Amino acid sequence: MIAPLEQMDAETTETRRRLRLARRLVASTFFQHRPEPIENAPPIPAWRAWVFAAWVVIVTGVYFATMLGLLQ
Amino acid sequence: MLAQLFSFLSLATIALASYGLGRPIVRALGVGQEDRLSTAVWSLATGLIVAGTALAALGLAGLLYAPLIGVFSLTASFWAIGQILSEAGKPTASAEALVEGGSGRPRPRPSDPSDEFARTPWASPPRWLRRGVLLLAGLACLGSLVSAMAPPTAGDALCYHLELPKTFLADHAIRYLPYSENSTYPLLTEMWYLWGLAIDGGVAAQLVHWGLGVLLGLATVVLATPVVGRPWAWIAGALVVLVPGVNNQMTAPLNDVALALLTTAAVAAWWRVVVAGESRRWFVLAGLAAGGALGTKYLAMLFLAALAIPSAWAFCRHAHRRRVLLEGVAIVAVVAASVAGPWYVRAAWHRGNPVYPFLSEVFGSDPGTTEEHETLPESKSPLGRSLAGALSAPWHVTMQPERFGGRGHQLGVIWLAAVPGVLFTRRLRGLGVLAGVGLAYCVLWYLLRQNVRFLLPAVPLAAVVAVWVWIEMRRFPALPRWLAGATFAAALGAYALIPLARARGQLPVALGLESRDEYLLRHEPTWQAAEVMNQWFGPNAHLLSQDYRAFDFECRVTRENVYRRRTGYDRTIADPADLSRTLRRAGFTHLLLAENLTDRGAQYDPTLARLAEAQWSTPAGDALLPLVDYRFPDPDGGLRRYRLVMLR
């Protein structure tokens, strides 16, 4: 006899899929990321990448805010 | 519209003639011919230096005649066309190198010679990225082209970058002008403007500087190619023309972009021997470019000093390269001195100081002037000269460019945002040398003259560093990579749109919908006075002007503040009624009185206006006949009043 499979409603499946995606996104953001190697060079650690990205965004934001007169 | 076409044709003639002059030299040297881009850049740069030097020689010999220059230009242009046609079917040097010696059997080779440079350990940029950045650069160049097609109105251009060549052309000679402090500067770029003036006029001269900006972008591609590969080098070149200060300068006939072009060419040629170990003949090109840079602006000395620092480092570290480096120094020094030397000898001859008016503490002040010129005034160093100031300079220069010469000359945010990324990148052969030269130059800039436009020679070097950081960013996790990439893209997009938005005011005159005279009437404060002088009195008058804008006057113009400093004429006038008599005796026929009625914008020394008012209040007042009296609103909110006065 084949055991009956528990039926899952579509809404639960979608919620779980989204949670799984969110967990992966958070994990890939804060933990060591291992993408496909480019030119056999090791990937740059995520924290360094985030520090640089934050620097770029902040500096550029401050710059344009200053140029537009939003900051003195 | 015909006028615009003729100006374009003049630019094309100058470019073709320069190519025609430079190509044989580059071919004879046997370097700089890897592909068509490299050949074109080196030929144009070399040809421009040769042509400028030839025009200077003609000027010193008293042979500056427009017809002669026209014949010379056409001959060199047709010579260039002949060379281009004869080379059209021939393979480039790099393609020839791919053919096996003797057998003539071609090896498998890339479809395009420039693909050879694409052989880097890292992947080329995606096609959409390369095309996107080049599109932005193209839009920025288009915007600056529209602005450059309007008649010149930039202050420094009308004061001397165009005024001096106009005067030399009118005199058919490069004469010593005692009342023009700028007339004994190195004037190679002004010789190129003289070329444009001889063929067409101010617009052609202005287009020359626009063309130099495009050539600077291409020279950056040539500089970056052996370091990061040709596909990424295109992005470095695009980055340079997207810099607001570079793009803005391309709209006016000044000389900072010209200087950046020549220093970039010098360091590119020097790098090929010292780092890549290629033929020593590159030193000749480096010397020509260094001489061109020294012949353009004194500031080139700082750049060459910065170039010497990594050279000295290489000399100490690599014993086997010492002989090459010493040979290089000797070749570059001899060639550069041959190109630039006459300008410095001329300054020493007339002023007693080869770098007049600087270093008067060493060479003594000009005997003709009553004022000391301070070489390192505090006012030119807004950040002082401390370690803290040096460390904070990148931030202040980016965020407050108005403290360092104005927002129009600013370098933008890309450098401050991208260059610190070298802290996480791998080391790349040859990049450290370029970064070292750039850093040394910035330190010298900080110590001597903190004006943001003087940093343009460091921009191509920084562009190569920034591109390497972007290449390394592909080792980032996806999210920070896209975040940083999107931020850079937004900044570059803004930099491409600014020149387009700025060009709206010039679009009608650029398209020929508005006449150049109408445009000047609205944009150039001295135009009305110049029109009256030109139509009524022609080239034989002699104007003493409180305003330094002199280019639009056909007659000789002397700046009142310089004349006063050198002669002290104001102190010799005991009776107010003597002003007109004193100035007439000195050879002047007219006065241009200028004053700013507000406290905003340029202010004028009131001495001459006060003396004129004093004479008007005496019975001899009718010896000063007012011809024109008008007001001109400045874009910055100032209101100027001009009075053209005839001395009777």
Task: Give an overview in words.
The complex is a heterodimer of chains A (72) and B (648). Chain A is 60% helix and 0% strand. By secondary structure, chain A is mainly α. Chain A is elongated, with a radius of gyration of 22 Å. The N and C termini of chain A lie far apart (77 Å). With 648 residues, chain B is mostly helical. Chain B has two domains: 468 residues, no CATH class; 123 residues, no CATH class. Helix content of chain B is 59%, strand content 5%. Chain B is built from 27 helices and five strands. In chain B, strands 2-1-3-5-4 form a five-stranded mixed beta sheet, with helices on both faces. In chain B, a hairpin with a 5-residue loop joins β4 and β5. The longest helix of chain B has 30 residues. Chain B is globular, with a radius of gyration of 26 Å. The chains are: A mainly alpha (72), B mainly alpha (648). Chains A and B meet through α1 and α2 of A and α18 and α21 of B.
Element layout with pairings:
The complex is a heterodimer of chains A (72) and B (648).
Chain A: H1 10-30, H2 46-67
Chain B: H1 2-29, H2 36-60, H3 66-87, H4 93-97, H5 127-148, H6 155-161, H7 163-171, H8 188-199, H9 202-228, H10 230-242, H11 244-249, H12 256-274, H13 282-294, H14 300-317, H15 322-351, H16 360-363, H17 387-399, H18 414-418, H19 431-448, H20 459-472, H21 478-502, H22 507-510, H23 516-523, H24 527-536, E1 542-545, E2 556-559, H25 560-567, H26 579-585, E3 590-596, H27 607-616, E4 624-633, E5 639-647
Parallel strand pairs in B: 1-2, 1-3
Antiparallel strand pairs in B: 3-5, 4-5
